[in-house]
Design a protein that fits this description.
single chain, 183 residues, alpha+beta, Cyclic Phosphodiesterase, Chain: A
């Protein structure tokens, strides 16, 4: 099974992102726009995982005690090398701490942490095919980088199973892990 640990978005954040995506999307734009059902903030991508490792992960993740996380989406950006258009996520101390707790917990199950610095984001679109650079260039000309979105408080994080097909990814929730209320 292909797994990812992530924070789900609030309905208000999804609505704001959907308005933005609708304003930028046009026919034959050379982009594969992500469906709203797949939008999340990745805490750790686990990739292909065995059933045995899944059991370990569920146990370790359920032991995490962390406060709810204030989340602020802000601005848009591009990962040019990957052909990705995204909404940025402010790395609050609470978000950074949760990410560290999760990578420590998954390490106990034999999962290696990413080498790259943590850069949370919500993937909105991917460029596809040979015209990838041109599609991104057109989108860059249209996109507003300093967009503000409604903030929200994450009261849980999820373990998703991800399924890939020709239209992109589909996610199903495997487990929910509550975060403690902010006092």
């Amino acid at each position: 099974m292909r797994l990812v640990i992530a924070i789900p978005l609030s309905p208000e954040a999804v609505e704001a992102l959907e308005r933005l995506a609708r304003s930028l999307r046009f026919a034959n734009d050379g982009l594969r726009w992500s469906s709203t059902e797949t939008w999340h903030i990745t805490l750790q991508f686990l990739g292909e995982t065995s059933v045995e490792r899944y059991a370990c992960l569920a146990q370790r993740l359920s032991a995490i005690k962390a406060p709810a996380v204030p989340v602020w989406l802000h601005g848009t950006g591009f990962f040019d090398h990957a052909g990705v258009f995204f909404a940025g996520v402010h790395v609050s101390p609470e978000l950074r701490q949760l990410e560290k707790l999760i990578t420590a917990a998954t390490a106990q199950c034999g999962v290696d942490a990413e080498e790259r610095p943590y850069h949370p984001h919500v993937t909105l679109a991917r460029a596809k095919g040979d015209g990838k650079a041109g599609a991104l260039r057109k989108l860059k000309d249209m996109a507003i980088s300093e967009v503000e979105f409604p903030g929200f408080t994450a009261r849980e994080f999820l373990l998703y199973e991800s399924f890939l097909d020709g239209r992109g990814a589909r996610h199903e929730i495997r487990d929910r892990f509550p975060l403690e209320p902010i006092s």
